[in-house]
Amino acid sequence: MMGSRNTIKGAILSSTVLALGLAAPAHAQQASETGMGKDDIIVTATKRELKLSDVPMPISAVSGDQLKAMNANSLADYITRLPGVVFNDYQPGISEVVIRGIAATTYHEQGQTTVGYYLNEVPLVEPGFPIGIPDIDTFDLQRVEVLRGPQGTLFGTSTLGGAVNYVAAVADPGKFDAAAEGLLGSTRNASGQLNYAAKAMINLPLVKDQLAVRVMALQRVDAGYLDNPGIGVNGSNDYRTRGLRGSLVATPNDTTKLTFLTTYQDTRLDDQTYLDLDNPYVRDTPRAEPQKTDFWMNSLRLDQELPFANLTVLGSITEKHNTTLFSYPYAYVTGVTTGDDAAYSLGKADANIKSFETRLASKDDGPFQWLIGFSYMKAKKHSADRIYQGGAADFIDANPDLYGGYSGDLIAPNDAIYGYLSDTSNENWGVFGEASWEFVPTVTLTLGGRYYNTRNSAEITNAPGSLAPGSYTITPSSFGVKQKEDGFTPKVSLSWKPGETMLAYATYSQGYREGGPNPNAAILTGIPTSYKSDTVDNYEAGVKTSLFGNRLTIDMAAFHIEWNDIQARLFTDAPYYYSYVTNAGGAKIDGVEFSGALQVNRILSFSSNVTYQDARLSKFLPDTFAVGGGYDKGTTLPGSSKWSVANNLRFELADVTGAPSLEIAHRYLSKAPVAFGNDARRGGFNVFDLRASIGLGENIRVMAFANNVFDKFGILNAPFTSQAVPAGSIIRPRTIGVKLDWSL
Fold this sequence. Notes:
- The longest helix is centred in the first third of the chain and has 17 residues, at 5-21.
- The strands form 10 sheets. The protein has a 22-stranded antiparallel β-barrel.
- 50% of the residues are buried.
- The two termini are 48 Å apart.
- The protein is mainly beta.
- A hairpin with a 4-residue loop joins β31 (586-599) and β32.
- Helices cover 6% and strands 53% of the residues.
């Protein structure tokens, strides 16, 4: 069976043999640009520009050229190919990146995400339950940086596992530039519908070397592959992404750069992606369950070179919106579970995020380097979530004895049988800094820290409503929450760089995320009204090296993480399954990450990323509503697969006209539980992709591709299989197509 222990041993053995046992002529730069290998990409993970190979921490960077060669459009296409990273692919705006197994569910965290998301260093996700997690389309990105391990010192809250920083290309005053991309494809079980994408960019210098504008636009449609007989639609889960990005860059002199960046992206899902896992590619709901998300980010950045340091000032405003509809096949008031009178929920949410950061960084290359900064964020959110059931008010009027004689209009106005309004405000600020001292040649000590201060408040109002005969409310219930915390997150790192081709390091670091309210506490006794912050302590050591004239690159890290006061997302008993968060228990995560790339010869290159991790509760995690009262020490964390492997084999005839190429990409994810107290498993699958491309002249390259070649059925998450509503998502069926890239 594919995915067995022998399969894993074989995958690791083959990558080790290729990485360590073969010699080849020098051609490593080509390998690193086309596969998932390393090269001299410049990254900003330490809030200053450094070569990837010089950063003393575990970081992956995928360049724009690499993303293009991989035919990557969204996170699902590339993020899972990086060491230590999985992707809980579920709903647009809800799907979360998980790094090093730090997660309490494979669905989505009810509180703040465990990974921070940034666009050109601007935070995209607010504290508390996020109103959308933007999945930035890869077109016209310079690179995507993925930092593994907590980043509490430089990036602040929401970085328990790490951070994802999208780096979009901005206007270049030095040249005229343009690019375009088109895609056409087909997915199995998509009922004849096509996938397509159209993307374009233009860069216009307005004043040579001093002022320029850059504009990008895109639309991408992924055809649905799930059949929904309940609404009579095959391929119901069509998914569309649209985006606009513009930037204006002014460089009035050699020491000043002013950048304005605006980005808008929206998504529309016609029907949800979860399905009955016992009936592949079929979901049966009384109505379509559409979802719409969008965000609009505007930022202004000043980079100023001073005589003694480099100054950066960055401010932003981000607006986000999310509208989601779900069916609820529960009896509730009327007993009807099918047709137009079946219950459904309608949720609408909005968020406004304002952020500011300023920092000074030393500019010389001497043995002592320093950075100091200040950051501030204020986020306000409003959400309204109501469950409706057709005919509920009439049923109550016809059965007054069951409802205390109250009218249906009072208990279930407009057939709304339950709902709440939530208004939250979060404010945090921090002072941070790092200092590095090369106290002896080749050995550098880095000390860093952040003092943070967080405040949040919430007003939760549960509207009148009825969930079952004999259980009803006639007046709104509400409560308020106010919380404040402060603290300090330290970082200590010791690195050794004996030469240009080797770097070794050992690091201790911390991460944290903020607390928040539990809206359902107003409707059910036993749910805590709020939860507090949780933290991680991270210990790791790693080495980066290149051998045989850069033909072979290796990046390895071993880590031990202690997760304290876990913000665990739990659920109450049937039939309502109210969700809530509580701080409980702890976890320990031990793992090893390996990333290697080898240029075998002028034609053949190979890269491999392998991760092993063991993520388990280190303390009993109490759960009032669970059988046995909770989860024992040693329980595996949800979604924490022990093994993940990604291999890439590339053949390229660089000396032949058009430089034709062929790539075989493989990914394996071992099985893992989907949620606490749930016997379902995700993973246990091998997926293979094929890509072949050829250049037509100097400006055009055509690619033919086949993703999930063997049409593997693989479960990504299924956290609610114990409920009446099936809720699991799967990897996309076999998809074939052709892509055309043009650049000036």
